[in-house]
Prior knowledge:
Elements: H1 7-19, E1 26-28, H2 36-45, E2 50-53, E3 57-59, E4 62-63, E5 68-69, E6 76-78, H3 84-95, E7 102-104, H4 111-120, E8 124-125, H5 130-133, H6 137-151
Parallel strand pairs: 1-2, 2-7, 7-8
Antiparallel strand pairs: 3-6, 4-5
Amino acid sequence: MSFGTNPEAAAEVTRAVKAVTTKPVIIKLSPNVTDIVSIAKACEEAGADGISLINTMLGMRINLRTRKPIIANKMGGFSGPAIFPVAVRMVYQVANAVSIPVVGMGGVSSAEDVIEMMLAGATAVEVGAANLVNPYVCRDIVRDLPRVMEKYGINNLKEIIGGAK
């Protein structure tokens, strides 16, 4: 959070990582910011090869019996299908603002979600929390993708990247 919420700090970290590796550097951004686009642009200008988003959102739960926060740190990472609309919005905003690839993630759990992320501008899509519910979710998504593509008249996934206007 200390460098992920500030464009200058995110750029500094990006430059530092790029200076010590020849491998592609994909910067994962936090959704817990006011302006995701400025941070993504700063990372791109600092040499990032790609942007991935979103990471978990800050969440909290309270135990009704004890009246205390459930987790020791009081607040923590909130993930899963509830954050998918936020992830799609941020992928859309960033993909329309940068020229480097965008990896979409955050609540992805179906082939339909993959298509939606790609229409928003993602060139690749990751699945996270859904694996905790179904360890075969990635296999299931890959198997279901041809059916969903046919349903929506999609012949090639590359053709739909950023297709939402």
